[in-house]
Amino acid sequence: MFYKKRQGGYTTLLVIVFGSLFVFSVAALSGRVLVEQDAERARMYKAQARAIAEAGLEYYKWFLAHNPDDTQHGTGGAGPYNIAYEDPESDVVGTFSLDITGNEQCGAITSIDIDSTGWSADDPTVRATITGRYAQPSVAEYAYIVDDNVWVGSDRQISGRYHANGGIRFDGTSNSEVSSAVGTWTCTSSFGCSPASTTPGVFGDGGDQELWEYPSPQFDFAGIAQDFNALRTLAQSDGIFYSGYGGHTSEGRGYRLVFQNNRTVDVYQVRRSNIYVGAHIDSGVYENDYYVPRRVRYLGNYSIPSDCGLIYIEDRVWVEGTISGKVTLVAADTTYAGYEPKVIIEDDLEYTTTSGADGLTILAEGDIHISPESPEDLDINAILIAQEGYFGRNLYPCFYPNSHQDTLTVRGSIVSNTRVGTKWGYTYWPWCFNQTSGYENRVNSYDRNLATDPPPFTPVSSPDYQFVEWRED
C-alpha cells in the first residue's frame, strides 16, 4: 500500500509538470502566431502606405504637366494638401498628403520638391513618406559630353557618364555608362590608329565594356544654347554685368575674376597680356596665345546677389578662387558678329563646402582654356560648357617652365563642342625628348550634388520634366 501511494504521487506530479509545459507551449505558440500576424499586418499597411505615397508623387507629376510651376495645388494657399486615394474597383483606400516647395533662382522656378506622405484607411497610424525632385535633367548628370570624336587615354580615370556624338576610343577606366551616337567611325592616326580603320562607336582597351553603348541617341548641342540677350538683360537688373573692354579687337584684353569665400568677387580689368606659343591638337599649327595677364586694373570687390548668382561678362574672362553659393558665369558677346569670348582658368576653382550648397557653372560662348601658367596640381570644381569651342590646355613647347604639370582634378562636368585635350605628346619639337605637354595625370568625376540642383541657367540635357531625385524618408 505504501509503495502504491508513492507511485500515484509521482504520476500526479508528472501530469501537472507536463500539463503546465503543454499549456505554456500552446500559449507561447499562440503569442508567437499573434505577433507574426501583427507584424505581417504592419508590413502590409507599410507597403500600402508606400504605394499610396508613390501615387501622390505620380499624381502631382500629372498635375504639373497641366499646371506648370503651380506649387499650391491650384488653391493659392500653403499646404500640405490632403487628397483621398481611391481604388478604381472599390472606394477610398487611403490618403496622401503633399508638401510642395518650389526652388527659385533669379526669379524663376528651377525645380520642385514634393514630399508625399501616404497611409491606409485601415490603419492611419502606419505612414510612409517619399520625396521627389521634379525638374529638367541637366548636363551636370554627365562627367563629359563632347560633340566630336574623342580618345580617352589609358591614364584617365572617369567617374560618371561619358557621351560623345562622335566615335570614342576608350582606353581609360570608368564606373559608368560610356555612350557614342554613332555605330561605326573611322579612327585615324590622331586617335592612335595607324593605318586608319573603321571601328565600332566605342572601342579600346578600357572598361567596364559592359557599360558601353552605341549607337545611342545623339545629344542635342543646339538645344543647350542659351538666350544670351535674355541673360544679359537679367544680369544687368539682378546680377553682375560688365560690358566689353575691347577683346574683340585685342586678344590680350578682358576681365579677371577672383572669387572670395564670402560670396563676393574681385573684378580686374585686363589691359594687356603676355604672349605664349601654343596649339590645339586639331589645329596642328602653333599660334600666339594671350592667356596670361600682364597689366591689370582693380575695379572693386562686389557682392554676388544671394537670389540670383548670375555674372555676365561681355568679353574674355580669366577666373580663379573660392565659390560660395550657386553662381553662373557667362562669357558671351551679342554685339560683334564672329566674336566668341573665351574663359581662361588661371588657378584652383574651389567650393567653401562640398555639401551641394555651392556650385559654379561657366558658360563660355567660345573656348574654356587652362592657363599656360596654371599650377602643378590644379583642382577645378565647376560645370564647364564651351558652347561653340573646346575645353583644354593647349600644347606648349617644353622650354616653357610650366609646360609639363602633374595632376588635373575636375569635379563637375565638361561639355565641349569640339575635341578636348589636356595632355599632348610633342610632334614639332624633337628636342623635347618625348616629354608630354599638359597634365600627366587627369581625374574626372561628376558632382552628384549638382546633378539634381545645379547653378542657375545650367543647360538641360532633356526638355522633358521628370523626377531627377527619388528617395524614401
Number of strands: 31
Count of helical stretches: 3
For the biggest sheet, the summary is:
14 strands, mixed
Relative strand content:
35-45%
Cα distance spanning the termini: 76 Å
Q: What Rg, in angstroms, do the CA atoms define?
A: 31 Å
Structural class: alpha/beta
Which whole number gives the mean pLDDT?
Answer: 88
List its traits:
single chain; 473 residues; alpha/beta; 2 domains; 14-stranded mixed sheet; 7-stranded mixed sheet; 31 strands; disordered N terminus
Outline the fold blueprint.
Blueprint: H1 2-66, E1 81-86, E2 92-105, E3 108-120, E4 127-135, E5 142-146, E6 150-152, E7 156-159, E8 161-164, E9 168-170, E10 173-174, E11 178-180, E12 184-187, E13 197-200, E14 202-203, E15 212-213, H2 228-238, E16 240-242, E17 254-260, E18 264-278, E19 287-303, E20 310-313, E21 317-323, E22 326-331, E23 343-351, E24 359-364, E25 368-370, E26 377-386, E27 391-392, E28 404-416, E29 423-425, E30 436-445, H3 448-452, E31 466-472
Parallel strand pairs: 5-8, 5-28, 6-9, 7-10, 7-30, 8-11, 9-14, 11-15, 16-20, 17-21, 20-22, 21-23, 22-24, 23-25, 24-26, 25-27, 26-28, 28-30
Antiparallel strand pairs: 1-2, 2-3, 3-4, 4-31, 12-13, 17-18, 18-19, 29-30
